[in-house]
């Protein structure tokens, strides 16, 4: 059973309530992802549907633990960037100060739905829902260099 790996992943994301992108020059991977590597793809004939509810729930959590939000400081996914993952669904992610008021591209992975806020801790003006691929230029919705926090499910 992969339960321990999942617990590790979720314990790790509990520490990410303050999602912590740091520098703005090099790609920064933020996650403590204790998720196993993906197995090689299976042919259709080999796929065994998951019927056990607990197993299905575990599989769903493993998929969710791989999802994240890609952010950059310049338009069209350029400039300093970070990938915030895993996402603690339903918990506000308050950005560290170096990432407040600088984000220009905001891209949730497929399967996530997000709201962005111009105040700390998901307060103030908000915009959502945002689905993949997100916004290459947040000025189109009046949110360029204005995100201070966000929340996703
Ligand atoms: C961003 O991409 C769009 C669409 O391709 C393009 O029209 C626009 O000029 C680009 N902006 C910059 C600043 O590169």
UniProtKB/TrEMBL annotation:
<protein>
    <submittedName>
        <fullName>Uncharacterized protein</fullName>
    </submittedName>
</protein>
<keyword id="KW-0732">Signal</keyword>
<feature type="signal peptide">
    <location>
        <begin position="1"/>
        <end position="19"/>
    </location>
</feature>
């Amino acid at each position: 059973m992969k339960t321990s790996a999942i617990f590790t992943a979720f314990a790790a994301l509990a520490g990410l309530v303050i999602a912590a992108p740091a520098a703005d020059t090099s790609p920064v991977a933020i996650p403590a992802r204790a998720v196993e590597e993906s197995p090689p793809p299976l042919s259709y004939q080999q796929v065994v549907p998951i019927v056990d509810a607990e197993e299905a729930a575990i599989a769903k959590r493993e998929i969710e633990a791989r999802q994240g939000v890609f952010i950059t400081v310049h338009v069209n996914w350029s400039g300093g960037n970070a990938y915030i993952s895993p996402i603690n669904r339903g918990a506000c992610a308050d950005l560290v100060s170096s990432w407040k008021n600088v984000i220009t591209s905001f891209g949730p992975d497929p399967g996530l739905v997000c709201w962005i806020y111009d105040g700390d801790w998901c307060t103030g003006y908000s915009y959502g829902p945002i689905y993949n691929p997100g916004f290459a230029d947040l000025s189109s919705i009046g949110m360029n260099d204005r995100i201070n926090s966000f929340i996703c499910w």
